[in-house]
Fold this sequence. Notes:
Blueprint: E1 19-21, H1 22-29, E2 37-39, E3 45-50, H2 52-56, E4 63-64, E5 70-73, H3 85-91, E6 99-104, E7 109-118, E8 124-130, E9 137-147, H4 158-165, E10 174-178, H5 187-190, H6 198-216, E11 221-227, E12 235-236, E13 239-241, E14 246-250, H7 256-270, E15 277-281, H8 288-296, E16 299-305, E17 308-311
Parallel strand pairs: 3-6, 14-15, 15-16
Antiparallel strand pairs: 1-7, 2-3, 4-5, 5-9, 6-7, 7-9, 8-9, 10-11, 11-12, 11-13, 13-14, 16-17
Amino acid sequence: MTTPTPPASPSWTLKPGRPVERKKLHEDFGGRTQGGIGPSSRTLNVFIFTDPIAGEKHGYFDGWMPDGLFHYSGEGQHGDQRMISGNASILNHRQEGRTLRVFQGARGTVTYLGKFEVYDKDPWYEADAPESGGGPLRRVIVFRLKPLDTDPQPPQTKLARLLAAANNTEAEDQVQDLPLEQQLTERSFVNPAQEPYEAERKEASLVQALADYLRGQGHTVSRHQMLPRGETRPLFTDLYDQDLNLLVEAKGSVTRENVRMAIGQLADYGRFLLDATRAILLPTEPRSDLLSLAHSQNILVIWPIKSGYDTSKADFTL
Length: 318
């Protein structure tokens, strides 16, 4: 019995910006009917589907970036993403003679964005994002895709606009002063769907009260946005007193876990403010061993008292 020859696929005529039914697309050209990456076993295409609005709510900032490239998060809903399956089909598309075709939308009618290829210089990087369903943070793969038959578009995601405003270059770290009241957090660019913890609300209240006190002393307070070289997710400090050269990280609870976390964050931020005095702001005076832990890292501790604020080092007062 002779195996019937599958029908030949039609020639590609779809132009960038035109809509198409995803079901019809796969009927004509093959590829997976579900999921974000659909390598075709019948044609030399890899279909890529992206939903920027839905993705941004969960820490996936797919879309045009200030570098003129389209950044696309890889597949894999649980655990660290690996360079296998659909992700490998993107990375190796040139060696396999395949064309990358990107579409906006994932179901029903999708819009063809154009033909792309992975960027030669630096095809992908790693970022943090939560597992599907609001799970723990893990490593995700983000591809840099270069357009071949369409022009780069202005940045549209929250992250892309922030990076454009920072005039980010890969040549150096970026550190910018921000108004203290600007409500940007690292969580909003890594796990934006997660509701703020009660501790985060307490931290914000602690920071605002300290800022009001310092301003009452005639001090200028602000915070920083930091973008380390090679990273695409910004860091944000809690408070910086310009007159005291004081870098403050607030925690809403006096626990060892919180003190440890604050020490790590201050070590991270302090790389960019080498001469700053580092301090942890807590709601009450911590027990002696936690003070010793902070002092071992050359970090002082601040907490509110009736008359203002006390500190863990006698030679430093607010």
